[in-house]
């Protein structure tokens, strides 16, 4: 190659590099715009866990003695009820201030429920109202908020909500939810939030000498996905004995019973929702799939498990990744071995427990495996029955939104003959698959 040809080749390479840099520049501009949009969103929206910690810290601070020796929250608790602080400490809350805050939350809940049953007794109603107001003053104005007015129906008004109680319910729901252990959680300050999502990545091309460099940015879309809050309600029946006894026992029972059911329902919808409530991973557009044969397929080591891990070429899909499967699906996975005959499903041991997310039942090919009874194992395909899906992906790309303003109401009359009070808790939650290509669904695997 003479000098002229060499220079011509160098010029062509330089032209290709310049074109690629220009394309990358466009990508960087869009990345910057997205980063700014996300930054704005994150400024107004903290992670739900962060919000709960802030609320609990504020409540605990109100339970600490001040320079003058006064304790705003302890002094707000009626003298006859301060034994609840000792009971809270017995439950292992950690320190005196946290025990006082826990007792005050529980007493607020107990007295609010009790007040609904004495509306026809003015003296009792007035006394409970005063004690509730004093507790709210003890927490401080910043920890008492109003629920949002009805956004989809008319005639619904605000109810006072004690935010430390709401934070406790959200924490209990997370403790009873597997998805919340690994998904991205955020509070919602309106009914709907628009979440930026990358649909298609930038593509690089080889370009002929003197040829036109393909601009892939026209095929790269930053779309908006709607995170919309849906209403979830839970009902619990409380005996008059429980209502009159320890406030700590009442709050723990109520929060635990309702939070368990809400958490389970959220998990099921986030994975298998069809769009009526949540559009779950199984139904979300753009999620990758590994299809079964006409009548369903058995789960196998290479075509099922390994293929799911590497279905998406993007390494990001394997960061923060985990499996979700039904109990029947877990049985099938548990029996699989690799090419050396070694089991690929490991049950938890002492070293694994410290690194696995809460609720994981083991490790499948090095990734946490959650086993959830809300995942269907009675799917059908062709003549195949008792089929189930198995889910894999980076769950930080699944967003769970909590619409702040949890409400509850009581009904002391419907179960009057059994001396029981019904309590309804209503919260609003949204779910959106933020980056569909970060998830893989292994479809219609046999379980029998």
Please tell me about this protein's structure:
This protein has helices at residues 3-44, 48-62, 72-76, 83-90, 96-116, 122-139, 163-175, 179-182, 240-244, 247-272, 301-310, 327-334, 350-353; strands at residues 144-146, 160-162, 184-188, 192-198, 222-228, 230-239, 288-290, 321-325, 345-346, 362-364, 367-371, 379-381, 384-394, 398-411, 420-433, 439-446. It is an alpha+beta fold. The strands form 4 sheets. Strands 7, 8, 9, 10, 11, 12, 13 and 16 form an 8-stranded mixed beta sheet that branches. A hairpin with an 8-residue loop joins strand 14 (398-411) and strand 15 (420-433). The longest helix has 42 residues, at 3-44. The chain is elongated and about 100 Å long. It starts with a helix and ends with a strand. Residues 38-45 and 146-158 have low confidence and may be disordered.
């Amino acid at each position: 190659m003479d000098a002229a040809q060499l220079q011509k080749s160098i010029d062509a390479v330089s032209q290709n590099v310049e074109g690629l840099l220009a394309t990358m520049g466009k990508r960087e501009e869009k990345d910057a715009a997205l980063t700014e949009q996300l930054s704005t969103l994150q400024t107004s929206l903290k992670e739900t866990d962060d919000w709960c910690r802030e609320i609990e810290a504020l409540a605990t601070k109100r339970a600490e003695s001040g320079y003058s020796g006064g304790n705003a929250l302890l002094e707000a608790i009626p003298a006859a009820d301060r034994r609840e602080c000792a009971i809270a400490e017995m439950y292992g809350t950690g320190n005196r201030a946290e025990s006082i805050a826990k007792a005050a939350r529980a007493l607020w809940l107990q007295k609010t429920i009790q007040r609904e049953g004495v509306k026809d007794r003015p003296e009792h109603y007035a006394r409970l109202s005063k004690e509730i107001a004093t507790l709210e003053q003890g927490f401080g104005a910043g920890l008492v908020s109003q629920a949002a007015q009805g956004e989809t129906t008319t005639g619904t008004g605000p109810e006072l909500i004690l935010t430390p109680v709401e934070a406790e319910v959200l924490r209990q729901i997370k403790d009873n939810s597997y998805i919340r252990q690994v998904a991205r959680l955020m509070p919602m300050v309106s009914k709907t939030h628009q979440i930026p999502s990358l649909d298609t990545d930038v593509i690089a091309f080889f370009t002929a000498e003197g040829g036109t460099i393909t601009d892939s940015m026209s095929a790269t879309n930053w779309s908006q996905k709607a995170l919309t809050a849906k209403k979830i309600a839970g009902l619990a029946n409380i005996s008059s004995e429980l209502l009159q006894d320890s406030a700590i026992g009442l709050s723990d029972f109520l929060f635990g019973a309702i939070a368990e059911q809400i958490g389970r329902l959220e998990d099921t919808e986030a994975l298998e929702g069809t769009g009526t409530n949540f559009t779950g991973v199984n139904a979300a557009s753009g999620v990758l799939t590994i299809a079964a044969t006409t009548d369903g397929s058995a789960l196998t080591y290479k075509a099922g498990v390994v293929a799911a891990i590497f279905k998406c070429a993007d390494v990001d899909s394997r960061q923060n990744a985990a499996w979700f499967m039904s109990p029947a699906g877990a049985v099938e996975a548990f029996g699989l071995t690799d090419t050396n005959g070694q089991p690929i499903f490991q049950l938890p041991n002492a070293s694994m427990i410290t690194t696995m997310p809460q609720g994981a039942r083991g490790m499948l090919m090095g990734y946490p495996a959650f086993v959830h009874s809300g995942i269907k194992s009675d799917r059908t395909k062709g003549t195949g029955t008792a089929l189930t899906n198995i889910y894999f992906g980076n769950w930080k790309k699944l967003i769970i939104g909590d619409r702040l303003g949890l409400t509850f109401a009581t009904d002391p009359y419907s179960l009057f003959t059994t001396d029981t009070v019904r309590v309804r808790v209503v919260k609003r939650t949204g779910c959106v698959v933020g980056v569909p290509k970060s998830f893989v669904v292994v479809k219609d695997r046999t379980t029998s």
